[in-house]
Amino acid sequence: MRIGEFAERAGVTARVLRHYEDEGLLEPSRTSSGYRDYGPEDVGTVARIRLMIEAGLNTATIRQYLDCVESGSDRMSVAMCPALRDRLDEVSARLDDAAARIDRTRAGIDRLTGG
C-alpha cells in the first residue's frame, strides 16, 4: 500500500514514516516506478518502533534492537534480548533519578514559599 494509506493505518504521518526510513528503522519495498510499497507486516514494525521511542530509546538503539522485540497479542516482549532489557533498565533508573530530583526541587520550593 502507498505511504498515505499506510500512514493512516499505522497511526502516524507520512513524514514520520520517511523519518523512520531515513534512520534505517523501516525499509518498505518499492514499486517499479519507485513508490514506497508497505505491507501489512510493516504496521507491527511501526508499532514496535513507536513503543520503543515511548520507552525512551533513541533511533540508534532502536535500530540495534528492533529485531529483538516480539509482538504478542496485547504487548511486546524483550525476553529474547537481554541487552535490550539492560538498556531499558538503564532508562528506568535515569527516570527514577529524575523523579527524585524533581521531588527534592519541589521540597525546596515548598520550604522557600512556606507551602
UniProtKB/TrEMBL annotation:
Coiled coil: none annotated. It comes from the Bacteria. One of its GO terms (molecular function) is DNA binding. It comes from Gordonia spumicola. This is MerR family transcriptional regulator. Residues 1-68 form the HTH merR-type domain. InterPro entries: DNA-bd_dom_put_sf, MerR-type_HTH_dom, MerR_fam. The keyword Nuclease does not apply. Keywords: DNA-binding.
